[in-house]
Amino acid sequence: MSEKQKVIIVGAGISGLAAAYYMKKKNPEAQVTLLEASDRIGGKIKTVRRDGFIIECGPEGYMARKPTLTNLIKDIGLGDKLVRSGSGTYYIYVNHRLRKMPNGSVMGIPTKLLPMVTTGLISPLGKLRAALDLLIPRVYQDKDISLNEFFERRLGAELVTNMIEPLLSGIYNGNLSDMSLEATLPQFAAIEKKHRSLILGMKSIQPPKQAGASKKASGRFLSLSCGLDVLVEKLASYADEIRLNTPVRRVESGKITLEEGTELKADAIILATSPKQLGPLLDFPEAWNLSIDKRTTTATVALAFKKGEVESLDGTGYVVSRKEGLNITACSFMDHKWSYTAPEDCTLIRTYVGTAEDAAIVEQSDEEIEKKALADLRKIGKIGTPLFSVITRQIDNMPQYTINHNQRVQVFEEALAKISGIYACGAILHGVGLPDCVDNAMHVAEEASNQLKKNEEAATNS
Fold it and tell me: What is the pTM of this model?
């Protein structure tokens, strides 16, 4: 190669960093530059170390059954740091008390009769309504609907309110009435299509083999005992250049215009930026439609305690039903899930505030957020005085896959494909989890790399 081909990646979150790694893996001779508008890399991944605690302020881990990220971690030499989460009872706070999630329930969907009959999570009438799932016809008819419509029609409003909604909102921080079945939980549409009944379908499915940890471990998540920021730094080392505090104004075929006016030439451009930037950067209707799609704002409140200050819980945490009217939506006992996150005589609790309907609390001061979070935690269990807290806000950047999301993504990608040399990946497109983002980045980097090689061959033969 007489002159290095230049690749510019906009955004240094997990998607952009993974794209940089895969570009260098596929095309080692390319010059890869990362442009990041903020003053740090990593995006939502942020690890804080303090007084022996390892605090993940964003994602704490990822689903073990999705192998792409596990393979990446092993490829870059961090495989020996992989750890599987601890397992234990999980609770839902509903009707003013913590109640155990019934054995055999998956995402709140029952697969065993006795635990559902005896649970106090829903009333006898609610249980009878849920059992109608065994009889009613299919709800999904190959046309996207909301999660709320799908689950309510199959299992009834009470089970959705008391079990499914708290669990899914804790994961996705969305409103089930807005969230797309096809984009968010397509596996449930497929289960219903095959088995008609969700209960029978879920019961027939054996848990998939999980990648990356020993068979003895039972937790469903993986993380890095050294902290996820080590993954960030390791991936960043594969880029030839990283420019922080470098916002981009405009992206065109072969050229990027920075906010301050400088133009940068590029043979390939990969957009791994926040969804709200797609419209302004690309300025075509399909990009704007993704930019204006619903996003939510949340805050993570990490609280460090001496063990004697916290009532012990025989599990890893709980979610909170929204009908309880609390500020917090979920609570994780991080040292129960990940033993390395706190010193032996301490406990690390992580709770979450802000919902899709009401994010006003996130705009309040750290002191006020901590005060309200502690007040709610103390309504549920014994909580003393924290040693310290770490509060992290995610402002207007948590994508919500609303109804017909997949269709909007498809037309966006079709429109983008008509622009030579520009590609896109990120949480707004094909999944918000870390493995989804890495998988998307891998495929986009492969596509861009293949095109660069074709361009080089064409230039050589001309």
Answer: 0.91
